[in-house]
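WARN no homologs supplied; continuing
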Amino acid sequence: MRIVDLNENTKKDLLGELLKRNPGQYKEYEDSVAKIIADVRDNGDKALFGYTLKYDGAVINADNLRVTQKEIDEAYQKVDEEFVRVLRAAIKNIESYHLLQKRNSWFDVKEDGIILGQKVTPVASVGVYVPGGRAAYPSSVLMNVLPAMVAGVGRIIMVTPPDKNGVVNAGTLVAAKEAGVTEIYKAGGAQAIAALAFGTESIRKVDKIVGPGNIFVALAKKAVYGHVSIDSIAGPSEILVLADETANPRYVAADLLSQAEHDELASAILITTSRELAEKVDACISVFLEQLSRREILEKSLENYGYLLIAKDMEEAVAAANEIASEHLEIVTKNPFEVMTKIKNAGAIFLGEYSSEPLGDYFAGPNHILPTNGTAKFFSPLSVDDFVKKSSIISYSREALLKVHGDIELFAKAEGLTAHANSIAVRFEGE
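OK structure emitted
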């Protein structure tokens, strides 16, 4: 990996490189995605089935589009019992964490007859997109479905592409069943997003779409936003490790590689105050590369977006971390909790050498669907809040309105909205 001194120029170059991975940069695909969406919107199942044959090689029709209980039972036979046990343990942790996020409606009642409040209502229906093939991640099923369940969403459906034989990944099906999904459809890509957004003869439209996918899925979600709500436009995975001389270089190297193996666009960055640590991490990475199965992807990822940055002090290191605003941030320093208080921008923060990033991916409980490409500056992890709506409640008694009606009428007239003013004044005619 590249060992580079951190300064304003190197930071600017780095940020420029990372931003190139933003899905918004891939405009050459937007026309293709727009055509697919329009076709599915106008022609429903016919278009959906046609694209499934074209891109997945599977013959899907109205009779076999929806996954059956028999197919789910067969999926359980294909997976290891220990996997199911671990899945259930993870579900317990994820559900427990998200229950702490749940909000209730509230009301503030004043003595003069004013009642103000907020009514919290679950979104009625949610569509969860789950990738298929090599990118099938049962953990993402749990992270998308469980906060929606906790929020009280009434209808949660899942779409996922089948293989050429029309079969869905067994781990995905088992995870969906364990999480409580009752509707699963064999559809992927931009065509599945269009089906969720506009509905077809076989798939009823939803109010919100969540879940990761490739560039076509990301651009499709962007295109249908406004017709439905979406969670975010996810970019490639990222990890940033903030470390000092006390960090274990083998641990740091292993953690950087844990994200670099996702794909060739994944980013793995170390910012450290110790050049010696950076050199040791680099040596450990070389050793690990000889042992790991996705070596070709790892090498390309590190070549493209892997950096070992040397900061003059922790203050400079923290400032750079806040500017990068990484999806995953590990703090491996003498006092990680103290450093954490200075972090403003990060999707998820992992503290200490035994809080490796995969702990968050699979098991700890916090959601692993996180803001990428610097959007942690203004976005948050997926949560229960993403699956509810909030309505303001306003109730005034006659006596309460009497005290302020003149002020409201004055405000409305100042904006030239005399009908607004009249709506208040008419209630006190002749007084």
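The chain is about 45% helix and 15% strand.
OK
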